[in-house]
Amino acid sequence: MSAATSATHPALRDPLARRRLGWVVTALVLLWPLLHLAEFHPATLMAPANVQVMGNFLRGFLPPSVAPDFLGELLAATLQTLAIATAGIALAFVVALPLAFCATRSLSVSAIGPANGRWRGRVLRQGMRTVMVLLRSIPEIVWALLFVRASGLGPAAGVLALAITYGGMLAKVYSEILEATDARPARALLQAGSGRVAALCFGLLPVAAEELVSYTVYRWECAIRAAVVMGFVGAGGLGQLMDQALKGFVGGEVSSISLVFLALVMLADAISLVLRKVLA
Amino acid sequence: MSLRFDRAGLVHPNGRLGLSAIDLSVAAGERVALIGPSGAGKTTLLRLAAAGLRPTAGRVELLGDDPWTLRAGALKALRARVGFVHQAPPIPPRLRVVTAVLAGRLGHWGLGHALRSWLLPDDIAGARDALARVGLGDRVFDRCDQLSGGQLQRVAVARTLYQAPALVLADEPVSALDATTADAVLRELVDYSNAAGATFVASLHAVDLALRWFPRIVGVRDGAIAFDLPAAAVTPERLVALYAGDVGPAPERPVESRHWVTLPFESA
């Protein structure tokens, strides 16, 4: 702001320009050491010895394996992964819904006025946000390992792990989508004596539904990938199959499994597209 | 007493003065128009009256209660009896007209009833009746984003009629309507107020409409009440004084040349 006063034509200078440039420079200065910390050396990938090893491995990918008993195994594993992801997301949704509902500022009745219970409302919302942070701060793979090692669970470990971590993630993004939605319709309803759930349904969801659904389907897609990763630590499904194929250097099976990944992501994309069209 | 301001004032959280020491009483069934230049505090006054803003000084009583001393349940019940027509209709564009109107009764419905009606509108006849009163009886199942700005404003009026409140507060309820439709919509609100014995307080920038439909006129300027008179006692001089200087960049322009002040007297 003060930059404007020193300029020759103060009115013609964008008062924010200098500050914006400052932020860009700061971001670059901060990013550079991070690249070093992350040991980001793309040249290593291109070293002749490494190219040789990778080349051999990749050559083994073709053709994808279509052995009948492997395909049977692949189908079963795919269904299991889908089941883990879907059950996990469903449980996560059940966890997230009440958290997001309580944490959304636009549905606060006491904020109108403001009325007497405002501090109680703020404390409750902050509490909910803390619960969300706790839920999603530990990666699902850690939960999965814990459940597999401690309780000997198979696929159920993946489901529980997803419910916890993704519950926190869904709740956070749901409440942020709802808060980014125009709050006036819901406020107007609350100001006319409506309940909070009704204000959500009649005031916020008509606008936010599309984005909420699209985000949920995207999270389901992420849950499929997460279910695969958790398979590597013994939670079953495609991950476990991939683990065996990679350890045995069976390139054909690896590529078949990878093609299934591709198909699953395309499926999620198609579902999202259809749902958004329906809700638009 | 339907509405009572007792030395009520409001300072916005950013320190800007909204209203200072307002004294105003409105009897049950009375009709009052608020007029005054843009930014005078008409909307703030209405929001205080609707228990949407809490006064930072003094007291506001509506329908016999001080809303800010009530428990949450009683406040909710009180708010359900107050209808508010907002200047910009707060209706999500994707809502269907029927659902937007039915939402007027959410304050009276339990959660089960509300959810049922959200999924499947349950009082289509009631919604259509309210819509017919504002000339939109044939748009029941359209989506609100298919309506024009003026039609959406009428849907908001229909919602308030459907709510059937004891106190109707309207903030520029006909600002997006042409003169004929504006007149017809105000007539409906006045008819409702007469039939139900409901108090009706509206802010209007069209002075001619205020004088035609409201027996009592309150002039608001700079966050205070400039005059509070029967419509017949509102003289052109008072109006000129009320709106004086409200021209923005060219304050030297003669006030008399602005049609919205002279209009009521040309048409009278």
Structural notes for this entry:
Chain A is globular. Chain A folds into two domains: 45 residues; 210 residues, MetI-like (MetI-like fold, Orthogonal Bundle), CATH 1.10.3720.10. The N terminus of chain A is likely disordered. Chain A has 280 residues and is mostly helical. Chain A is 80% helix and 0% strand. Chain A has twelve helices and no strands. In chain A, helix 5 crosses helix 11. Chain B has a domain of 137 residues: Rossmann fold (3-Layer(aba) Sandwich). In chain B, 37% of the residues lie in helices and 21% in strands. In chain B, strands 5-6-7-3-8-9 form a six-stranded mixed sheet, sandwiched between helices. Chain B has a three-stranded antiparallel sheet with strand order 2-1-4, with helices on one face. In chain B, a hairpin with a 5-residue loop joins strand 1 and strand 2. Chain B has 268 residues and is α/β, with parallel strands linked by helices. In chain B, helix 5 packs across helix 6. Chain B is globular, with a radius of gyration of 19 Å. At the A-B interface, helix 9 and helix 10 of A face helix 2, strand 5 and helix 4 of B.
Write the topology of this structure.
The complex is a heterodimer of chains A (280) and B (268).
Chain A lengths: L2 H4 L10 H21 L4 H4 L2 H12 L8 H36 L14 H20 L2 H12 L3 H26 L3 H8 L4 H40 L1 H11 L3 H29 L1
Helix pairs in contact in A: 5-6, 5-8, 5-10, 5-11, 6-8, 7-8, 7-10, 8-10, 9-10, 10-11, 10-12, 11-12
Chain B lengths: L2 E9 L5 E10 L4 E5 L6 H8 L7 E6 L9 H9 L1 E4 L11 H6 L8 H9 L4 H10 L15 H15 L3 E5 L7 H18 L2 E5 L3 H7 L2 E6 L2 E7 L5 H8 L15 H9 L1
Parallel strand pairs in B: 3-7, 3-8, 5-6, 6-7
Antiparallel strand pairs in B: 1-2, 1-4, 8-9
Number of extended strands of chain B? 9
Assembly classification: heterodimer
Our count of domains of chain A comes out at: 2
Number of H- or I-type helical stretches of chain B = 10
CATH H-level superfamily of the domain at 1-73 and 205-268 in chain B? P-loop containing nucleotide triphosphate hydrolases
Give the structural class of chain A: mainly alpha
Level-2 CATH architecture of the largest domain in chain A? Orthogonal Bundle
Distance between the termini of chain A: 42 Å
Largest sheet of chain A: none
How would the global form of chain A be characterised?
globular
- Average pLDDT of chain A: 88
Largest sheet of chain B: 6 strands, mixed
Q: Provide the low-confidence segments of chain A as ranges.
A: 1-7
Number of helices of chain A: 12
Class from secondary-structure proportions of chain B: alpha/beta
Q: Any idea of the CATH topology of the domain at 1-73 and 205-268 in chain B?
A: Rossmann fold
CATH class of the domain at 1-73 and 205-268 in chain B: Alpha Beta
The beta-strand count of chain A equals 0
Q: Unreliable stretches of chain B, pLDDT < 50, 5 or more residues?
A: 248-268
